[in-house]
Amino acid sequence: MLKLFTYNWQVREEWLTWCESLSEEELLKPRIGGQGSILRTLFHIIEVEYSWTIMLQGNADPGEPPFEPYASLSKVREYSAKCHETIAPFLTKWCNADYDEVKEQTSSGEEGGPSLGDVLRHMIAHEIHHVGQLSVWAREMGRSPVSADLIGRNL
């Protein structure tokens, strides 16, 4: 499973680099689907992964921060790096554990909800879903999207 997180992180970094050739106006331009713009969708991908990781560590959901303070490519890239510092060590540890046995607990301390493995798989699929939206938008702009190939990434 760690291979798929590493794949997502590589693809995300490639999308951030891909965005460098676009104007801020193009990055923030309202679009149909995803989170409504390229930059907001990238921010959302990062925030959801961070939020789930915080909750998996037993902390309260931090809630999605407002997008406006991050509404530039450099700020989203900084946010991604900051979140990755927290996310990577935790996910590396848990992706090597018996994650299908660990169950989420309810507020009363009883087992309930999805297994850790299900949450991790959901996190991976969430990012892949939104990267697909970025690819559609890239093609609508007449540009080639970032490659989604897993093979050849030396993971």
Tell me what the structure shows:
With 155 residues, this protein is mainly alpha-helical. Helix content is 58%, strand content 5%. The protein contains 5 helices and 2 strands; from the N terminus they run H-H-H-H-E-E-H. The protein has a two-stranded antiparallel sheet. A hairpin with a 5-residue loop joins strand 1 and strand 2. Helix 1 packs parallel to helix 5 and helix 3 runs antiparallel to helix 5. The radius of gyration is 16 Å and the shape is globular. The relative contact order is 0.18.
Portion in beta strands: 5-15%
Structural class, from helix and strand content?
mainly alpha
| Number of β-strand runs | 2
- The termini sit apart by 11 Å
Order of helices and strands: HHHHEEH
Low-pLDDT windows of residues: none
Give the % helix: 55-70%
Widest sheet: strand ordering? 1-2
| Net shape | globular
- Taking all residues together, what is the mean pLDDT? 89
Largest sheet: 2 strands, antiparallel
- Helix count? 5
